[in-house]
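Mods, move this if it's the wrong board.
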Amino acid sequence: MFAALKQDMRAALRSDPAALSALQVIMFYPGFHAVVLHRVAHRLHRWGLFLPSQFVSWFNRLFTGVEIHPGAEIAGGFFIDHGMGVVIGETTRIGRGVTLYPGVVLGGVGHDRGKRHPDVGEGALIGAGAKVLGAVRIGSGARIGAGAVVLESVPPGATAVGVPAQVVKRGRRESNYIAGTDTAGWKDDR
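Not the wrong board. Structure tokens:
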């Protein structure tokens, strides 16, 4: 968990030109606070302590405006810029080096049980207000435009925009996190 938090700190410093120091991020970045609290909630969830994990998740939403289900799997190097209104569903898996902007929803559709939320590959970037819905895959290094509604998988390195989202640019873009890889990357540092 601490290795992932260290990667999250580096991601904040790398991704936000306004971040001047680690101390500034620790004290004043609600996106970083949300990730720290999620890592605690996720650990409790994995240990079968569902009520305490839900409490930490509830407090996280109250304190930061970011709602992350304790069951969501998030690898290190994750950065939520500003974060207000971000929602991440229970079966979401997020790879290393992913960046989300305010108002992003990684949500499900319907009431089915099982896998119902997106997988986001490493180095992906999801713009403000974008909604990624269902058990779709956002490929490594992909970019989702602000306000897009993604209902189908997006290939690695592609850019998708619009409602519903359409791929407007294809091609392999190097991942921001680990160049040239397309590995799953969402196994968190346990």
